[in-house]
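Listing S7. Sequence submitted for prediction.
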Amino acid sequence: MKSEINSSDLLKEILNEDNFLIVQDIDGVCIPLVKEPLKREIDVTYIEAAKSLGSQFAVLTNGEHEGLRGVNRVVERAYAKAGITYNEDFYLPGLAAGGIEYQNRLGEVKYPGVSEKELDFLNRLPKEMERLLNKNLIEIFPLLKSVQIESLAKSAVISTKFSPTINLNGIFSTIPNDIALQKRIQSMLRELMSDLLISANDEGLEDSFYLHIAPNLGKSDNKERLKFASLGDVGTTDIQFMLSGAIKEAGLLVLINKYVQEKFGRSPLGDDFNVRNAPKSLLAIKSLCHEQIREGEMPILIGVGDTVTSNPSPDGKGWLRGGSDRGFLTLIQELGRIYKKENRIVLVDSSHGEVDRPTLSDNELKGISDPYDPLQFNTYFRGGPKSYVEWFKQLAKERNIGI
């Protein structure tokens, strides 16, 4: 089991390393969680700090870079609000849409391996999501007027290019204390999205998509489990219609490959390596990494996330572990063992935002981890995104002074 280290010691460790890569989630980590994605805000000085770290920083998120609701719009609004003129190279580099959408600092986006037929289906999906959601909400809220139902359905659908999503935060805000009804809506959403997967199959896209449930309780029969609402924890708020291969574990391998190419001048996994042609299992991902990436090339990895879950199984004989950051953080931990490197796992408390999440404040990690959890965290930011961003800016400042 890895020992816990405070943020100051973590900073010192990183400053003493030349070959390191910070791989970081975005929402709940450097951006506080909000019920309406269009109202997200990011600190301009954080963006500048990320820029100063160069190739030693990359994002890995299930959100998207581009589009109306993309992180790029959040970044642009931050500069506009601050009245600061920016250059072209201020975008957050790395992978979005679970690993499908790669972006460099110039905001140049690539999405290798995605077909026009898949993009066409995804483009039509938001309207169908809204139609089906409207139909289901009429049954769930018989006393609401049709115009209210239409507004709820419209605001819940996130029309992203690679991962159209239904977000329940707005709907849940109308029933904040009705856990039974929240559970009913979560079940309805799972069924609705499953029907859309069947529609994809009917169009000859059987292996093109899967459903990402956030937060989730791990997998059963290769499908992610819903996390039902409970007192103090709203559970699943989003279901994303994702392209197959778009998992953060594969995305991590893509980012390592790009890092090695930039630092050492070769792409150990090939110039065209991407999440769609990456291995599908964690074991195969680790094997490929160990076979192709030399020990001297592998950087110290610092993984930063916020969405990790663990809850007792209904039979009381085990734990249901999940969360959209668990997979890539676990892979970072295991690669540390394989390469004998002091990789670090960092957890940010995202309960400080507008969305009910389990908190780190009581030190129990209830709903997040358990006494037998193989994933061990090294450093906690109990103050949430604000405290993490301050630490991150300090890292960038001290590193640049030392260069």
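Caption to Listing S7: primary sequence and predicted structure tokens for the chain studied. The longest helix spans residues 116-140. The radius of gyration is 21 Å.
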